[in-house]
Specification:
Layout lengths: L7 H5 L20 E8 L3 E9 L2 E7 L10 E11 L7 E3 L7 E13 L12 E8 L3 E8 L10 E6 L11 H4 L10 H6 L12 H6 L28 E4 L9 E5 L4 E8 L2 E5 L11 H9 L5 E9 L8 H8 L7 E11 L2 E2 L5 H12 L6 E3 L3 E2 L2 H10 L4 E6 L8 E9 L2 E12 L7 E10 L2 E8 L5 H12 L2 E2 L15 E13 L1 E2 L5 E2 L2 E5 L31 E3 L4 E2 H19 L4 E5 L9 E3 L11 E6 L5 E6 L3 H9 L2 E6 L12 E8 L5 H17 L5 E4 L5 E6 L6 H18 L4 E2 L11 E4 L9 E2 L14 E3 L1 H4 L13 H8 L18
Parallel strand pairs: 10-20, 15-17, 39-40
Antiparallel strand pairs: 1-2, 1-6, 2-3, 3-4, 4-9, 5-6, 6-7, 7-8, 8-9, 11-18, 11-19, 12-13, 12-14, 14-15, 15-16, 19-20, 21-22, 21-25, 22-23, 24-25, 25-28, 26-27, 29-30, 31-32, 31-35, 33-34, 35-41, 36-38, 36-40, 37-38, 37-42
Helix pairs in contact: 7-10, 10-11, 10-15
């Protein structure tokens, strides 16, 4: 028989003279709150709690909630908790039930979806909506059929596909602080702001971290944004071409059917500029409000604002109606480029590097704010899909190109149907009942002024024609603004040529007028003087200026891989490598005769690499300057390969400011006798320790012997601070578990241990960069992975040069989107 008091089990398990958890008292029914508590007990998990019948129904989600609908997270039903538990954050003493640190990770309200009830929980199937800070939208809890001997109910928690879903977005890895206090798990454990991991690893670890406790608090993730929104910049424009460019040096995006905009933001301050620099934040007020709610640092973002038509696709006519208040519907922003961030000009970076930073900045966005995904290569496939879906086409961009505020061939547009802007020069009235407008007369700018371009008589309806006629009558003039064929003038009423219309049409006739045209709407964001005829150009071929000699020379004898094949790999992989290798001082591992022969490091250039390899002067210890190597495009990669380079290793800082690192790398280098499973476990434990002090980290297979734990940083601290932090962090771990770790490079000290190589985090030191081929047997590749993937990977060289297509596909996946990017700083000193 069930207990009359649903909190009997809760109270029986706890000694309230030892724990600060609240005693269980049933509350009033009728509330609809929910909370999630990150709980570092015997095993780290997330306690998901829904208010029902005056208590919190509870589940332990072992890996935390995921906003990827493909993830089905195990949720073990636990005892009901009192409503007062919703405010509990702190430490449960060791030895007590659930002993460990508890963080308030999310909170809000919940409701069953329309037509459903909270009573569905008893049936083992609860479909509900969350209104939290981090968990939002539709979710599903499903009870699994019990197995023999199971004492607890096992459920699955899953996100339902909606505007809040994000495939591959690791929500729990991204959100590391309390929703209430902004504290990390380490700070909560210490019961104070200073960094402390006391009680987590034993007395030796406590002693080793004493010095670290003198640091001031980790900055909360919800810090107040300072600074002004950046000034407007003219957007880059695309050139119309007749076919999709081929090759992996191009990335491809959907061509959104809306208004181009440049977003200038700093916290609550938001400006929404048109392509001509007009601030339309008031017209796009709902989007401006969502951008303000994201509390972004000062940034300048390029994107497109759209409204969805009845078929769910972006539709320009619908956008016009929504802006005029003639139709209901949400506006959406698709962001596809990042020009400035935190005062740094990013326009000189490769396109793919800017997009990586944009993906990290946007996170999971907001209901109407989205990151515009792209694919590497495979442009023709995307183009066919867009045309089949009735969309406008695609934009193809050179992966390694900088941003230029003019029209260039580095951005190309390929359209499914022909669409251009035209200037309206006149109109004719309709004699049909209920229709005011028969057609409009069009022109475009030529070399000597406006040139007639024909008539359009479809695309009008009662709603848009009434407004259009009103605008046309207000611009009436007696004569046409250009020479119009006499046959076209019958019944025409002429207007001042300053209205711009978007027209879809089949083709231009031999007389250079449109055939089968249809009116889509007016373009308020474009000036009549800028409207000229777009003629599709031949698609530019992707060519490199670097010639690879001796292509048949064997570089990897055991795998029969030649110099030419290595060059082809780097040419194809350039689009996924450039975010990490471009604009960073590099050291090269050169093996002119192949990997099995003599290899050497090189970081300076005597002039033999050619014009595609750049130099940055860096001050040496003796006070003099030395030129270090760096590259900024695929040609730079190939120029290095031509000179016998296999590996690329990079500084932890960029050439724009070499004294301020933008990442920290913890290289786990195991002794020869250790199993890779030991390294994987060490990497996961280090990730968890970094989580505790509020630092997001990423995993990368080194392609050598171990794993790199990569901690991205906002370039704020200088090298001495980063080195000191890495030193103390590594030595603390080694002191806590001396039989497992060492922070000393000595071979003798590594016996049976994993060397935590913190020395890569000092000025002048380098680490292998993502997607670099290693000069090792079978040409393994340093490959970014997700933390979930690490569990099943059997060796650090799991990916090789032969996996090029898979590596490119993985790099463009939502699972790895934003890999290696996070806005965070080390604890202040």
């Amino acid at each position: 028989m069930a207990d009359a008091d649903p909190l009997t089990v809760y109270n029986r398990k706890r000694d309230f003279t030892r724990t600060k958890e609240p005693a269980g008292k049933r509350g009033r029914s009728g509330g609809n709150s929910f909370i999630v508590q990150k709980h570092d007990a015997t095993r780290l998990h997330y306690d998901f709690r829904l208010e029902m019948d005056g208590v919190l129904k509870s589940w332990a989600v072992t890996r935390g909630p995921s906003i990827d609908p493909a993830d089905k997270r195990l949720a073990v039903r636990t005892e009901d908790h009192p409503l007062s538990y919703a405010s509990f954050e702190g430490t449960i003493p060791k030895g007590e039930y659930g002993g460990g640190t508890v963080m308030l990770w999310d909170e809000g309200t919940w409701e069953p979806i329309p037509g459903k009830s909270a009573r569905d929980l008893e049936k083992g199937h609860l479909h509900f909506i969350l209104h939290g800070h981090r968990m939002k939208g539709e979710w599903l809890l499903i009870r699994l059929k019990p197995r023999s001997g199971e004492k607890r109910e096992n459920w699955l928690l899953r996100k339902i596909e909606d505007s809040y879903a994000g495939a591959g977005d690791d929500l729990v890895a991204r959100e590391l602080t309390s929703i209430r206090s902004g504290r990390t798990m380490g700070q909560i454990a210490a019961q104070a702001p200073p960094i402390s991991l006391k009680g987590k690893k034993g007395k030796s670890f406590d002693a080793a971290m004493t010095q670290a406790q003198k640091a001031t608090p980790v900055r909360a993730s919800r810090k107040r944004v300072t600074g002004k929104p950046p000034a407007f910049r003219a957007p880059q424009l695309a050139t119309l071409v007749d076919a999709v460019p081929s090759g992996n040096s191009w990335i491809h995006e959907i061509k959104y059917d809306g208004y181009r905009c440049v977003i200038s933001v700093a916290g609550k301050q938001v400006r929404v500029f048109t392509r001509t620099g007009l601030d339309w934040a008031d017209r796009f007020a709902p989007l401006a409000a969502e951008l303000a709610a994201m509390n972004l640092p000062p940034a300048l973002i390029d994107g497109e604002i759209v409204a969805m038509g009845a078929d769910g696709n972006p539709d320009f006519s619908t956008l016009q109606q929504v802006l005029k208040g003639e139709a209901d519907g949400a506006l959406h922003l698709f962001a596809f480029d990042l020009l400035e961030l935190d005062g740094q000009d990013l326009t000189s970076l490769p396109n793919v590097a800017r997009k990586e930073k944009l993906a990290a900045l946007m996170g999971d966005g907001m209901p109407q704010i989205h990151f515009a995904d792209h694919v590497v290569g495979a442009g023709e496939k995307l183009f066919r899909a867009m045309c089949d879906a009735g969309q406008e086409g695609i934009i193809s961009k050179r992966a390694d190109a900088p941003y230029r505020g003019v029209r260039t061939k580095n951005w190309l547009k390929v359209k499914c149907t022909r669409r251009q802007e035209f200037v309206i020069i006149g109109w004719t009235a309709s004699g049909a009942s209920g229709r005011a407008l028969r057609n409009i007369l069009l022109a475009q700018n030529g070399e000597e002024g406006l040139v007639y371009a024909g008539k359009v008589g479809t695309g009008f309806n009662a709603r848009n024609s009434e407004d259009l006629v009103r605008s046309l009558k207000a611009r009436a003039r007696k004569t046409p603004a250009l020479t119009v064929p006499r046959s076209e003038t019958r019944g025409a009423q002429w207007v001042r040529p300053d209205l711009v219309a978007e027209i879809a049409f089949a083709e231009f006739t031999g007389s250079n007028v449109v055939r089968h045209g249809s009116f889509l709407g007016l373009r308020e964001d474009k000036a009549a003087k800028d409207v000229s005829r777009e003629k599709p150009m031949a698609t530019p071929e992707t060519q490199t200026d670097v010639r690879i000699s001796n292509r048949d020379r064997l570089i990897f004898p055991e795998a029969k891989i030649t110099k030419g094949q290595l060059a082809d790999y780097y040419a194809a992989a350039g689009a996924i490598m450039l975010p990490w290798v471009a604009h960073r001082p590099i050291s090269l591992v050169r093996c002119p005769q192949g990997r099995a022969k003599k290899c050497f490091f090189q970081k300076h250039d005597s002039g033999s690499f050619g014009d595609h390899v750049m130099h940055v002067p860096i001050r040496e210890k003796d006070g003099g300057d030395e030129d270090y190597l760096y590259i900024d495009d695929v040609d730079g990669l190939l120029a290095c390969v031509q000179m016998g380079t296999i590996e690329f290793h990079g500084w932890g800082s960029r050439v724009e400011d070499v004294e301020r690192p933008d990442r920290l790398v913890i290289d786990l280098d195991p002794d020869e006798g250790l199993d890779f499973g030991d390294v994987k476990k060490a990497a996961r434990d280090i990730r968890r320790t970094l989580d505790d002090i509020g630092l997001t980290s990423f995993a990368m297979l080194s392609g050598g012997k171990g794993v790199h734990v990569v901690v991205p940083l906002t370039p704020d601290a200088q090298w001495p601070q980063v080195k000191d932090f890495a030193d103390r962090f590594a030595r603390a771990l080694a002191a806590a578990e001396p039989d497992r770790f060492t922070a000393t490079m000595s071979k003798a000290k590594r016996k049976g241990r994993i060397f935590i190589d913190w020395l890569r985090n000092q000025r002048g030191a380098t680490a292998v960069l993502p997607y670099v081929v290693r000069a090792r047997e079978n040409a393994p590749v340093a490959a970014p992975i997700t933390w979930d993937e690490l569990e099943d990977i059997e060796r650090p060289g799991a990916f090789t040069i032969a996996d090029l297509d898979q590596l490119i596909e993985r790099a463009g996946s939502r699972e790895l989107r934003g890999w290696g990017e996070a806005s965070q700083t080390l604890p202040d000193y």
